[in-house]
Write a structure and sequence with these properties.
This protein has 163 residues and is an alpha+beta fold. It contains eight helices and four strands.
Amino acid sequence: MAKYLLVSFKTCPWVQRAAIVLREKKIDFEFRHIEPDNRPDWFLAISPHKKVPVLRIDDRVSLFESNAIAEYLDDTILPRLHPDDPIKRAVNRAWTDYVPTFADAVTATAYADTEVDYHKAAEKIPVPFERLDRALEKQGSGPYFNGAKYSLVDAAYLRAAWA
């Protein structure tokens, strides 16, 4: 089995997607936190964008961006968290691609500079939840996006809860 090192900041919510997938697949990995204002040279050497998260594989390859890391893990290690059906898989991928938009909308109040901006942002919060609720209604019954089966979509939105 490969050796995995997941590198992040303690405050990075995006790393959670990768950590959730690693744990869901029961993959042994080392979780190393670095300081955002004091990124060590070894990290700068392995992170092409100088951002976290980074998944280091066998001290040879660095994967970056939480969605790419999750997709790689799902492609290479069972059990698969994406559906086997190509159309269902594409729908799942589309909903994981929507996560940054979802997270931006539901956390915008935290970044408002004025009370007016805060209220404008707060008015928009229900919209992404309504969109997600409609998608869940179409997906069938069960506690997860795909009904009874846990998926990468679930890991992505659980990650969004940390944003």
